[in-house]
Design brief:
about 300 residues, Rossmann fold, six-stranded parallel beta sheet, binds nicotinamide-adenine-dinucleotide, oxidoreductase
């Protein structure tokens, strides 16, 4: 079985790396946070002291980092360290699963191609529950051969693999999705809050809306009202999950994209403003479904 270097073991990367181990891959793991490396080493991965160390001897690199600047520095290098394009063995397959701006994804992909590497931008959808269950959706950009090569690895961590188009296309499709997700989460939060304000039980209301015309992913899988679903971040003090800061990043990316293409995205713009205000109120590191607290009557 091939050896995978896994870089970035946060809320998403850690369960993804564990699924690769469960499927029999050898995993060489690195994160800036030592506890995260220790957590995956406890499951059988090899703990590495740098990204270059992790990628040494690997057949495949998978990265799961916060933003474009991290992906760029990892593959192209910066003033502090060499990039993986300078250090990995010939024929190493490179897969970036982070959600980043399409321009950086394209730049890194084309630099990799220039050096003869296959590179795939493969951002994911499905949240931490999908990462843990191994049911993520991968939205790939890159050339056909590179995406075909990536499929067996991605299948070990997910159940849907789409090829959106050439380099950077995975990122474009992903931010369209996340802009819609933000709007759905805000809409779900305000509808539930209005129901609660008028005496409805949020669980009963959720059950009704889930199978009615307002049904959506937030209601199905990620209810923002504490206590309605036991396993989601809302019922765990909004810890873990998908941070507000990351949603703010994605909504910034979608608005930049909309500006470039002169696309009209008023709902995305409003959602961005609401999540930015929520982050400014000290909620940046909490799960994004905590936007519910902007609508609910805390005294109720
Ligand atoms: P996170 O902040 O929990 O994890 C990111 C990890 O990367 C951290 O452990 C951090 O220490 C590590 N890191 C940062 N720079 C590094 C470097 N130079 N070398 C090694 N490690 C480094 O974030 P997350 O929730 O796991 O999200 C990761 C990516 O996945 C983001 O781009 C996010 O937008 C995307 N995403 C997240 C979710 C979700 O539900 N959390 C869903 C889909 C996509």
């Amino acid at each position: 079985m091939s050896t995978v270097a896994f870089i970035g073991l946060g809320n998403m990367g850690l369960p993804m790396a564990i699924n690769l181990l469960h499927k029999g891959y050898n995993v060489r793991a690195f994160d800036l946070v030592a506890d995260a490396v220790a957590a995956v080493a406890a499951k059988g991965a090899t703990a590495c002291h740098s990204a270059v160390d992790a990628a040494t001897g690997a057949d495949v690199v998978v990265s799961m980092l916060p933003a474009g600047k991290h992906t760029r520095a990892l593959y192209l290098g910066d003033s502090d360290s060499e990039g993986l394009l300078q250090t990995v063995a010939e024929d190493t397959l490179l897969i970036d699963c982070s959600t980043i701006d399409a321009a950086t994804a394209k730049e890194v992909s084309l630099s990799a191609e220039d050096k003869g590497f296959d590179f795939v931008d493969a951002p994911v959808s499905g949240g931490t529950s999908g990462a843990t269950a191994g049911t993520l959706t991968f939205i790939c950009g890159g050339n056909v051969a590179a995406v075909e090569r990536a499929k067996p690895i991605l299948s070990a961590m997910g159940s849907n693999i789409f090829h959106a188009g050439g380099p950077g296309s995975g990122q474009l499709a992903k931010i369209c999705n996340n802009m819609l997700l933000s709007v759905l989460m805000v809409g779900t939060s305000e509808a539930l809050s209005m129901g609660i304000d008028n005496g409805l039980d949020p669980k009963v209301l959720s059950d009704i809306m889930k199978v009615s015309s307002g049904g959506n992913w937030a209601l199905e899988k990620y209810n923002p009202c504490p206590g309605v679903m036991p396993e989601v971040p809302a019922s765990k003090g909004y810890q873990g999950g998908f941070m507000v800061d990351l949603m703010v990043k994605d909504l910034g990316l979608s608005q930049e994209t909309a500006l470039k293409s002169l696309s009209s995205t008023p709902m995305g713009a409003l959602a961005r403003a609401l999540f930015v205000a929520h982050a400014r109120n000290g909620n940046g590191r909490r799960d994004f479904s905590s936007i519910f607290e902007q609508f609910c009557n805390k005294k109720a």
